[in-house]
Amino acid sequence: MSKLDRNLLDLLKRLTPSVIATVTPENKPYTTFISWLIAKDEKTIRIAVSTNSKTVSNIKNNENVCIEVFGPDIAASISGRASIIKESIEGISFPVSVIEIEVEEVNNNLFPGATVTGEIPFKHTGNIQKALELDEKVLEALRD
């Protein structure tokens, strides 16, 4: 499949803890846990990560990425080409880049006889109100 199906589109409308794999300059895989991720449409995903992160640095060097997404009855590997469309998001106190991924391939990684029964448990720690406000600002920027 080369596009996101309805189940993935629905899952990727809110904070969805996922793992993104990028390629280092030494041509090695590098993974990062992310939660700022949304689907714009069936061929486009946007994520946000710290501007000074290794993920951003790797994407500047090599646009190939893969995102692993898990949810009820979903274990999907989404491959594509990434580009940085914003170096920072206005109104956020630290630099956060917006990355757009053109979906090239979607693979179902569920295996026969098993399924994922829920979402990855995720909660904020520390100042929860500030974290929720930050999430909303970032998700709003990803939707624009």
Notes on the protein architecture:
- The chain has one domain (6-143): Pnp Oxidase, Chain A (Roll).
- It has helices at residues 6-11, 54-61, 128-143, and strands spanning 18-23, 29-34, 37-41, 44-50, 64-71, 74-86, 96-108.
- The longest helix is centred in the C-terminal third of the chain and has 16 residues, at 128-143.
- A seven-stranded antiparallel sheet has the order 2-1-5-6-7-4-3.
- It is built from three helices and seven strands; from the N terminus they run αββββαβββα.
- The mean pLDDT is 94.
- The chain is globular and about 45 Å long.
- Strand 5 and strand 6 (74-86) form a beta hairpin.
- By secondary structure, it is α+β, with helices and mostly antiparallel strands.
The helix-and-strand class reads alpha+beta
| CATH topology annotation | Pnp Oxidase, Chain A
Number of helices: 3
Q: Could you give the order of strands across the largest sheet?
A: 2-1-5-6-7-4-3
CA gyration radius, whole angstroms: 15 Å
Low-confidence stretches: none
CATH H-level superfamily = Electron Transport, Fmn-binding Protein, Chain A
**Biggest sheet character:** 7 strands, antiparallel
β content, as a range?
Answer: 35-45%
Averaging pLDDT over every residue, what do you get? Answer: 94
What is the strand tally? 7
Globally, the shape reads globular
Task: Spell out the blueprint of helices and strands.
Layout: H1 6-11, E1 18-23, E2 29-34, E3 37-41, E4 44-50, H2 54-61, E5 64-71, E6 74-86, E7 96-108, H3 128-143
Antiparallel strand pairs: 1-2, 1-5, 3-4, 4-7, 5-6, 6-7
